[in-house]
Amino acid sequence: MPENNKLARYAAIFEDIKAGDIMSSNVVEISAEKKIAHAKELMKIKKISGMPVVDEKKQLVGIISIEDIIHALEFNKINDPIRKIMSTQVVTIHKGDSLATVVDKFENYKYGRFPVVDDEKRVCGIISKEDILHGILEKFNLIYIHDQKRTSTLNTEYSAITGEQLKTEEAKFHYRIDSSDIDAAGTGAAMLKQFLTGKNFHSDIVRRVGVATYEAETNVVIHSRGQGDIYFFQDEDRFIVRVVDNGIGIEDLDKAMKEGYSTAPDYIRERGFGAGMGIANMKRFADKLVIISEKNAGTQVEMIFYLPTQTWPLI
Amino acid sequence: MIKVRDIVALLDAEVLSGESKLDEEVKSVGASDMISDILALTKPGMVVLTGYTYPQVIRTALVTDLLGLIVVRGKNIAPETIAYARENNFLLLRTRGYLYSSCGKIYATGLRGSDAGK
Ligand SMILES: Nc1ncnc2c1ncn2[C@@H]1O[C@H](COP(=O)(O)OP(=O)(O)O)[C@@H](O)[C@H]1O
Ligand SMILES: [Mg+2]
């Protein structure tokens, strides 16, 4: 397929994604009349590096960043109103803007995030690069990269979902999957579950990790004809599970994703496997799922589980 | 309230493992022979009837936080399966009843499955 046709096809897939669909809507905004010291405290507590500033009608009038605050501290202006130091040249995104427009903004201005406004110029959200990626993944709930780029994405240390670096030696849990023993299938998932139970995580998330990992692990044993590994990483707010193998790969993921589709032979079905529900179950139990695979080059399953969100104290 | 003990009596079942669970309450029940179905369709604390006896079924049940399994039709169960259940103090019962009748008897007590209300 010629390159530009391919691009047009991708663009069509994403056409109906609007800024409003992918923005984070729990945006922290602050009134222009509040003191700079107040903004400083809020940013510290919320761990953010910038905030939209609004007037009494909640309309966007500026943006305040950490740099502005450092500046105010230097010049002893920390008790001045925010209005005095905020930048008023704010590049915004409208909630009805298309994904293409959003991407253009990131290309043209080197900011990390943009406030999203409605028709009345009221702030309704904020978009970071990560939100774009999440939006796209949410659209599919799954991404399947099946082309030459795979060699550069499969087996790298970078998360296909978040772009974070995931060093295998920093995994909190690792299990080498023994594909020669069907009876051992799922042992790694059971051990991971036990590991998490021992760390007192909530039983619901532990169960979800257990089930989804179990499905990914049994796939390596049953289908891959190769060797595999389970890696578990923990971040502040999420778990990442990676199940990788160097086996025969999945030839047609569109098919493999359908509930009920299975290439498992009879002797495997006899053992209760091969219902064709594995990938569907991973989708059901993980918050995000990405499968990258290619024929004869192996399969990489990456799953994210968000820990229950903390509630911030009100100020 | 229906306890494991009541189900054991109702199905004239053998307790192969998990004796300490006999006084626990059974809240819901399911039946399946496919691993992925057990993983997808059950709820924590459920008791599941099955004809599936490989050690794998115990691992599946542990991963999904089931309360216990009931093997039907008096099937032979591999010693490894029973050993694995015992290691984990997991409730494993066996009845001579067939799947359909056993489910029917339990249903008649008022216990429902994970699709109840759907
Ligand atoms: N790691 C893997 N390596 C090769 N093929 C795989 C792998 N995982 C899944 N597949 C393919 O995807 C199909 C669907 O997987 P799944 O939904 O788990 O169903 P099942 O395991 O019951 O067949 C499998 O039948 C197999 O053809
Ligand atoms: Mg499977």
Verbal overview:
The complex is a heterodimer of chains A (315) and B (118). By secondary structure, chain A is an alpha+beta fold. Chain A folds into two domains: 133 residues, CBS-domain (Roll), CATH 3.10.580.10; 166 residues, 2-Layer Sandwich (Heat Shock Protein 90), CATH 3.30.565.10. In chain A, helix 8 runs antiparallel to helix 9 and helix 9 runs antiparallel to helix 12. The C terminus of chain A is likely disordered. With 118 residues, chain B is of the alpha/beta class. Chain B has a single domain, classed as 3-Layer(aba) Sandwich (Udp-n-acetylmuramoylalanyl-d-glutamate--2,6- Diaminopimelate Ligase, Chain: A, domain 1). Chain B is 35% helix and 16% strand. Chain B is built from five helices and five strands, in the order H-E-E-H-E-H-E-H-E-H. Chain B has a five-stranded mixed β-sheet with strand order 1-5-4-3-2. The radius of gyration of chain B is 13 Å and the shape is globular. The two termini of chain B are 23 Å apart. Chains A and B meet through helix 8, helix 9 and helix 12 of A and helix 2 and helix 3 of B. Adenosine-5'-diphosphate binds next to helix 9 and helix 12 of chain A. Magnesium ion binds next to helix 9 of chain A.
Write the layout of secondary structure elements.
The complex is a heterodimer of chains A (315) and B (118).
Chain A: H1 3-14, H2 19-22, E1 30-31, H3 36-46, E2 50-54, E3 60-65, H4 66-74, E4 93-94, H5 99-108, E5 113-117, E6 123-128, H6 129-140, H7 150-153, E7 173-177, H8 187-198, H9 203-224, E8 228-234, E9 238-245, H10 253-257, H11 266-269, H12 278-285, E10 288-294, E11 298-306
Parallel strand pairs in A: 1-2, 4-5
Antiparallel strand pairs in A: 2-3, 5-6, 7-8, 8-9, 9-11, 10-11
Helix pairs in contact in A: 8-9, 9-12
Chain B: H1 4-10, E1 14-17, E2 29-31, H2 35-41, E3 47-50, H3 56-63, E4 68-71, H4 79-87, E5 91-94, H5 99-108
Parallel strand pairs in B: 2-3, 3-4, 4-5
Antiparallel strand pairs in B: 1-5
The structure holds adenosine-5'-diphosphate and magnesium ion.
Magnesium ion is lined by residues 215, 218-219, 278 of chain A.
